[in-house]
Design brief:
The complex is a heterodimer of chains A (344) and B (387). Chain A is an alpha/beta fold and 344 residues long. Chain A contains 11 helices and 14 strands. Chain A has a 7-stranded mixed β-sheet with strand order 3-2-4-6-1-11-12. Classes of the chains: A alpha/beta (344), B alpha/beta (387).
């Protein structure tokens, strides 16, 4: 894998991706993933126009719809040599939907346990005991959250492994057809660009088609949900949900090519940056990973699994937000961690 | 002189200015032209009426306060006023009772544009400091509207009956959707802006796209009061009918019953009769009357079957659902019944959220709680989407 660059949200008119492509000297067409946009996946015209180079959308969402369709509804574009009539895979579809249903339930139960543990932590935090004991209890509370996170991740991984062993997606003709097409697009591409959107939807489709395996020769640029799926641990968060309060929750292992960080896109709208206690608890819970809040303009580049440059907000275990973090002091200091859940 | 006569009545600043001024017709005209009514400052809300009358009363539905307050005439004018301490974020519906020739006539506040409508007409609305009509309850151009239809169902229980169906703007036959069944659903649409609320919350990703069935009853006070026929109609006829005709997620986690007042009793008793079938309940200002001893109740014979049902439920509480959202206004007489229902529901292990507001037993109170209730019961993709 060449360089992996994570960036903040890309509002309309942003020239950040175009600038990075130009800096890398990329002039060939890039491969684009907008699967996180789900049904809007094909509405990519304005985005592609902002790149300054042509782009070919991998259409991962449409491909998965085709695989999982109850009846054939997918029409391949004119002129493509696509054997779509053979591409439905009811057996895979059934197994995939059952796995997703189970994951959804597990996520709900994990979240209930988190809320309960968090309530207890807060009840302990207001007790009037000596500071040393309170500090120790807070560490215990964080450890319990970490254990719940770790247990949830491990169970998700087990489910994924069981699915892979039973369904062997990489050996199925239905998937092989798509992988062949994807390889043909990716092989001559100048870069792989991954947009944000629905993070679970994006992750599942990246995994299903083994996109990163086919893109090892390419630099990657990804933002928001796209950046999250490239890390080794995806954490969903929102400090301002419509129902009052929420607790951050691990969704799954990511694809692991940007390891050692937890990416928090769009913090201006989603994170209580002035809540020192909340920042500290979150950073301690995620440690030793770096918690990087990535607003518009943020940019962090990895090479060989290490951060080589960065500009983001760092949430520290002291409860502070370092808005001047540049990643410089970390160059070469963080060991590259292996992928926890590489492409299937 | 009696103590009541010597009591100093607080007067809003602008009323005090009017009282201190020339009190001419022009001065009174200017007072009405330059203020919004009722007058609201940090702690006081002053209700004002203008005209000739023998007396004027403020009539409201705030449980805990006398339901009628006389307004005082400002000497030398035809201006009547009364000041009430309304806690911040309060919302109070009211009318004026104008006494002429010994008879009272209830009218809206002609100087207050805020009106709330219900099946009985309309009331004026006082907004305490800090209260705002939620933006998500109003039409927003960027929120694509869902589609509404009316569907007929031949019921063995009730004969031919129609229900409303709301399909989300991005409805696709190939997808499967959660189902929300709303008692008094047509009134929710008319008086609680349910259509706009659904459009906006879905557009903001705060709730998932869902199919919403709107039921209404020609005899709700009987059918909703723990009537076995109603439960059979909803569970054995309406839900199977909906699942045949619409792409629904046919499992408890994706089925919700909702209702307000007697509609909440209907939702609760329907779920109670089929434990585990409905995974979510949204109950607003439920008429959950009960007695701790004896079966008599102060609310009249219509409540008898409700009291019987609630007493049975409270004696042997059990988890009939998975997640329950309960809300009630602090200014309703039902606040006691709802508050005391919270530990009963909690004891069953069901996941419960209880929400109170400074409001009464009315549709806009129920409207204002919909975002919290729906998004808590059906968290939308907001947590998953990072653009």
């Amino acid at each position: 894998m060449k360089s992996v660059t994570l960036v903040g949200p890309q509002p309309a008119g942003s020239e950040q991706v175009a600038r990075i492509l130009a800096q890398r000297g990329i002039k060939r067409p890039v491969a684009l993933v907008t699967a996180g946009w789900q049904e809007r996946e094909s509405e990519d015209e304005a985005l592609i126009a902002s790149f300054g180079v042509p782009a070919v959308n991998l259409r991962l969402h449409a491909r998965s719809e085709e695989l999982f369709a109850d009846s054939l509804r997918y029409a391949p574009p004119e002129g493509t040599n696509h054997a779509s009539k053979l591409a439905r895979d009811p057996e895979l579809s059934t197994a995939y939907k059952a796995r997703q249903e189970r994951l959804r339930h597990m996520q709900v139960f994990y979240r209930m346990r988190l809320e309960s543990a968090d309530d207890v932590a807060q009840a302990i935090a207001v007790r009037h005991v000596d500071d040393a004991l309170l500090e120790e209890e807070q560490r215990v509370s964080i450890d319990i959250l970490k254990r719940l996170d770790g247990d949830h991740l491990a169970r998700c991984q087990r489910l994924q492994d069981e699915f892979d062993a039973r369904c062997t997606p990489e050996q199925r003709p239905s998937i092989a057809l798509h992988r062949k097409e994807l390889a043909a697009i990716l092989e001559p591409a100048g870069a792989l660009v991954i947009a944000g959107g629905h993070v679970a939807s994006l992750l599942n489709r990246m995994r299903l088609f083994g996109v990163l395996d086919l893109a090892r020769h390419l630099p990657i640029i990804a933002w928001s949900a796209g950046a999250m799926v490239l890390t080794d641990r995806i954490v969903c968060f929102h400090d301002y949900p419509p129902y009052g309060k929420d607790i951050a929750q691990v969704l799954d292992s990511g694809l692991g090519v940007a390891p050692g960080v937890v990416v928090l896109p769009d913090p201006s709208h989603r994170v209580r940056m002035d809540d020192a206690r909340g920042i500290r608890r979150f950073a301690e819970r995620m440690a030793p990973a770096l918690c990087l809040a990535m607003d518009v303009g943020a940019e962090v580049t990895f090479e060989g699994g290490r951060i080589v440059s960065g500009q983001a907000f760092l949430l520290s275990t002291r409860g502070e937000v370092d808005r001047d973090w540049r990643g410089g002091e970390l160059v070469g200091t963080r060991p590259a961690t292996p992928s926890a859940g590489g492409p299937a | 002189m009696s103590a009541a006569r010597t009591k100093v009545v607080p007067i809003a600043h602008s009323i005090a200015q009017l009282a201190a001024g020339p009190k001419s017709k022009a001065a009174v005209d200017a007072f009405f032209a330059n203020n919004q009514f009722p007058l609201v400052d940090d702690v006081d809300t002053t209700f004002v009426w203008r005209g000739d009358a023998q007396g004027v009363n403020l009539r409201h539905w705030v449980f805990g306060l006398p339901s009628s307050h006389p307004l005082t005439r400002l000497d030398g004018t035809d201006v009547w006023h009364f000041t009430l301490k309304l806690p911040p974020t309060s919302r109070v519906e009211y009318k004026f009772e104008i006494i002429r020739h010994g008879h009272g006539e209830w009218v809206g506040d002609p100087h207050n544009p805020n009106r709330a409508h219900d099946p009985f007409g309309s009331n004026s609305v006082a907004h305490g400091k800090g209260y705002q009509v939620p933006d998500w309850s109003r039409p927003i151009a960027s929120s694509p509207p869902g589609r509404m239809d009316e569907v007929w169902l031949d019921s063995q229980v009730f004969g031919r009956r129609s229900y409303g169906i709301y399909l989300p703007a991005r409805f696709r036959r190939a997808r499967r959707y959660p189902l929300l069944i709303v008692h008094d659903g047509h009134d929710y649409m008319r008086y609680a802006a349910l259509g706009y609320v659904l459009d906006n919350l879905m557009a903001r990703l705060e709730i998932p796209d869902m199919v919403v069935a709107l039921t209404s009853s020609p005899d709700r006070l009987h059918e909703y009061a723990n009537d076995e026929r109603h439960a059979r109609y909803i569970t054995d006829e309406l839900v199977p009918h909906l699942e045949r005709h619409f792409p629904l997620r046919a499992d408890p986690q994706h089925r919700c019953l909702m209702g307000a007042s007697f509609g909440a009793v209907a939702a609760l008793s329907t779920a109670w009769r089929r434990p585990g079938f409905y995974g979510k309940l949204l109950l607003q200002s439920g008429s959950f009357a009960f007695t701790d001893i004896g079966e008599g109740n102060r609310r009249g014979p219509l409540f008898d079957p409700v009291v019987q049902f609630m007493n049975q439920l409270r004696a042997e509480p059990r988890a009939m659902s998975e997640r329950v959202f309960l809300s009630c206004g602090m200014y309703e007489s039902l606040i006691y019944e709802n508050r005391s229902f919270v530990p009963v529901l909690q004891s069953t292990g069901m996941d419960l959220r209880y929400s109170e507001s400074r409001d009464g037993h009315n549709w806009e109170n129920w409207r204002d709680r919909l975002r919290e209730g729906l998004s808590w019961l059906f968290p939308g993709p907001l947590l998953m989407v990072y653009e």
